[in-house]
Amino acid sequence: MSIFERRFTVGWRDVDPNGHAANMAYLEYAVDTRIAFFAANGFPPDEFRRLGFGPVVKTDIIDYFRELKLLDEIRVTIENGGFSPDGSRFRVVNSIFRSSGELAARVATIGGWLSLTERKLIEPPEKMKEAWQTLNVTEDFQEMSSSLKK
Prior knowledge:
alpha+beta, 3 helices, Thiol Ester Dehydrase, Chain A
């Protein structure tokens, strides 16, 4: 198992009137890292469209630990925080680190795989399940119930 990561620089558009990264910036770093992970594992945006499904978010929880400021260099990781046996639901955890290695924030997201035609959660393709299984499992991993009716 591995930890997938991306690096960013806190930009002007990311900073709030207090001079540090706004809460939406943390979510955007997390989402950009997830999209990069999907693309690196054979699921760029065009492939999701072709297959008619994509990730949908139910809940985001952000825990803040240290401020990020303009031009800070950061590293964002993605880990497997949970999934249902059929893979239809997931919990992904993104950790955001300052260049010093200090944890700045942690974003835990609960979501699932949405059929773009049926507008309901579906079991993702095996290739997506396999990609998900390559991620490091968090210490607070949660097995989730299946949302699909068989």
